[in-house]
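fyi for ur records
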Amino acid sequence: MDLVKGILMKIRNEIKFILNDRSISLIDFEVEQTLLDFLRLDQQMIGTKEGCAEGDCGACTVLIGRLTNGILKYESVNSCIRFLASLDGCHVVSIEYLSGKNENLHPVQKAMVEYHGSQCGFCTPGFVMSLYALWMENPTPSKRDVEIAVQGNLCRCTGYEPIIKAALSINKFGKPVFDYLNIERKNISSKLTDLQDKKCVVIGKNDNEAILPATIDDLAAMLKSRPNATIVAGATDVGLWVTKSLRSISPALFIGNLAELKKIEIKDDILEFGAGVTYSEIQSWLSKFFPFLENYWERIAGWQVRNMGTIGGNIANGSPIGDTPPVLIALKSEIVLRKGNKIRVLPLEKYFIDYGKQNLQQSEFILSVRVPLPVSNQLNSAYKISKRREDDISTLAAGISMVVEDGLIKDCRICFGGMAATPKRASITEDSLQGKLWCNDTFNKAVKMLDEDFSPLSDWRATKKYRMIVARNLLHRFFLEHDLNTAQPIQLLSS
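which gave:
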């Protein structure tokens, strides 16, 4: 037992997880240690490769299984930016596991061999693990399903065509029902259930401390007693602090295990979801209530990153080019913040103050995100411009929402990322559109007002001139896509 700021906690000083078919228990390790380093250096399991060390190339892909509402689900993740401490209560599956007890090629590997899906072979284990995750979830994928599954896997020599052909042919070499993970699912689920003892995990101390709160109350108490702690959710950003900048993140509060931050619900015409909900977990909800986001969502990073990264984390880091804030701001989203036992609600746009500065008090954290459901006559669009179509950082992102009634524009909200030091609304441009006639002439005049709203910077991603031209074009494109006076509005599904 331990007492932290009035909260009595049950403490455990070790992390426990399953690695392939072995139980692992660790009491002493570096808080910044990644799963990739643990596999390759500590366990001498070198099938998982190290490429970019930033979650971009997919060579380090493994599967992570976790119980969610009693159901065991496996997802592909980047082990290079997945911290060891976050694995408590999980089942880690590496490429070595696929050989099974007979050490034969797995059906996914057989398909890759048969269809010549590998040349130098460095990237192959990562591709195999991504396709394995897809095959387990969807045994009969479409070509587009395969393309999405390998968004986060880079191949420099083989080319994607034979890999896609292999992915579409895996069932020729075996069926998921006979796969070892499915056969052992009940047994693994039972073992993972036994690991869930509802105890707060504390490993190390001082400059090497990793903490896994068992509840939201634990998190609030720990953060008050350690106000300078680093909150780690998906680590798709924090992971790079370590692998690229060699920064210390101790003390680190790992919150990916908190079910309370994973809740998703509809309440009073508002979609509310916990800050720990990942891009993948919220995607089906967004597709249902905000279908315009489906194409946009598939362009955020790659599959592995979407399986790890959280919406709360994307907001919290305050990046001016974060993918989600522009569209969430355009949709009038709010965030719920907690400090100790105090709760406050803040319009999302008010969270971003300046570059590197957010409206966040010491020991305060994002609890949830609230997004109002669309109303009648509401037109919405989201756009992302980047050098690569997929698995790339934004040069510019935009969220646009307008209500059009009786041919007049009402409730106009336009937000851009990448045009200022923070995600920022185009308030002057909005005012120029408010109450105006929905027509081409109105938008031709409005796009010129963007010069009054923004003075973007030039950097290695784009010049100031380019960003302004693109912003104008996207606003005009919004009109073309939603033109109510055209029998067949222009629908451009790619940015």
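The mean pLDDT is 94. thats all i got for now
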